[in-house]
Model the fold of this input.
Amino acid sequence: MTAFDDLNRGVIAWATDPLSDKGWPMLVVGTPQFPAHGVQLITALISTKTYHEESLTLREEDYSGEPLGTRSHVLPWSLVTFNSAAAVDFYMTSLVTERLEAVATTASSYLSS
Done:
């Protein structure tokens, strides 16, 4: 298990979706800390499915670590928040800042519509 506090913005980790109990790669887009709850991980789901028209495709140059093995797409409207390391299984890789910011900006646009 990856140390919860080591998961910073831009990290892609394998985690269990609390709504489906299914494991997915998740991109950490935010790590706010709250006085009563500690660190929260705000994540966006990553999928290999290509039929999501609004998804953001991850290209080789988007990774600051090793690319995921399969062409993947971030679903910026599919946000999950974790407050426990129990749901996060392991670190996979990370994204460059520019691509992370594009994902965060797109996710934010869904919240303001």
In short: The radius of gyration is 13 Å.
